[in-house]
Amino acid sequence: xxxxxxxxxxxxxxxxxxxxxxxxxxxxxxxxxxxxxxxxxxxxxxxxxxxxxxxxxxxxxxxxxxxxxxxxxxxxxxxxxxxxxxxxxxxxxxxxxxxxxxxxxxxxxxxxxxxxxxxxxxxxxxxxxxxxxxxxxxxxxxxxxxxxxxxxxxxxxxxxxxxxxxxxxxxxxxxxxxxxxxxxxxxxxxxxxxxxxxxxxxxxxxxxxxxxxxxxxxxxxxxxxxxxxxxxxxxxxxxxxxxxxxxxxxxxxxxxxxxxxxxxxxxxxxxxxxxxxxxxxxxxxxxxxxxxxxxxxxxxxxxxxxxxxxxxxxxxxxxxxxxxxxxxxxxxxxxxxxxxxxxxxxxxxxxxxxxxxxxxxxxxxxxxxxxxxxxxxxxxxxxxxxxxxxxxxxxxxxxxxxxxxxxxxxxxxxxxxxxxxxxxx
Length: 425
Ligand code: PGA
Ligand code: ZN
What we know:
Blueprint: E1 2-11, E2 17-25, E3 30-34, H1 62-76, H2 84-95, H3 105-122, H4 127-132, E4 141-148, E5 161-166, H5 172-194, H6 214-227, E6 236-241, E7 248-249, E8 254-257, E9 260-262, H7 264-277, E10 280-284, H8 292-302, E11 307-310, H9 318-327, E12 332-335, H10 337-340, H11 343-355, E13 359-363, H12 373-380, E14 385-387, H13 394-409
Parallel strand pairs: 4-14, 6-10, 10-11, 11-12, 12-13, 13-14
Antiparallel strand pairs: 1-2, 2-3, 4-5, 5-6, 7-8, 8-9
Helix pairs in contact: 1-2, 1-3, 2-3, 5-6, 7-8, 9-11, 12-13
Bound molecules: 2-phosphoglycolic acid and zinc ion (ZN).
């Protein structure tokens, strides 16, 4: 049973306050989890509670901390820590709002994860095994964001993330080695071409060079992959997060990309050309967050070989995923526990995705901490895919390092490689 739940403030990777929750059980289990925080947040996410006012520039979390310590903890202490659904339901009930705005999505998500980790610890199991049992043997293929744009960087790139996907390898360790080598060659190439300022990094550890055009970023990725000695069609391929809500002009109903206005149809044509020219295996949020119809159209056109991933579109929300499934909008979902707010709702979304033939990418946020829960979740649910930034900056490498550890711990680890994707080498 849960003996104690305690919240406190810690800092995230952008230097903003966030909430850490520590759960202790009677069986001497201990679970610690931190809430991450997005920058390009979807309109339908669970909302964070922040203090406002002067301190921490309005970003303090003392109200969220108090909600855990004074409201949530008394309601959960004494319950069996393994009863995750009951625990999450209790928090949802006490909150009583559709977007967790009373207790705070940040307070709820950190509590939900810390209780689950305490239960795992009580049972003497690593978190991934608690979630997935001994069938949890599959490492995820990582999508590593090595060129940052959009709201994550101070450059003029409209697309938010240019990722490399080391799929053509037979272990996670080899995949990470390839990614690290490409990242190093990219640094060298960027420095030679654009000068030393080009190797400053953005929020997720990728470089933020003064590149303005999508194609120029893609060309330089290909160059780096080749320079590192890898094949860009068969070993290290490419994924994009356009995060297009950020360059959509709602008033005019158009996208403004590289200074030019695009209709939805023109933008889909643009993606189609990119997919025919580059080894792109995945495009996240190609269209703005309310455009289910547009997602259905691009899925019809590209969905047989490219993952069309809904992040802001679905916000890890069962009702929104259901709508997507009905309309055949997208063929994959980005899964962020803090978008929906609890572990059980996240597992519900994952189950819905898998039973309906959708792929799932377990994801970090741009504002992260040293918390590694998502690494364990990706293995525990057998997602096959994870995106957690560049192979640099502690809050990103913590997840990769945890996955390296898990791979060594497993008796028969599997690395799905291209089978996690639709486009084959
Ligand atoms: P965010 O970005 O964490 O800033 O929302 C990540 C993403 O869009 O995938
Ligand atoms: Zn995204």
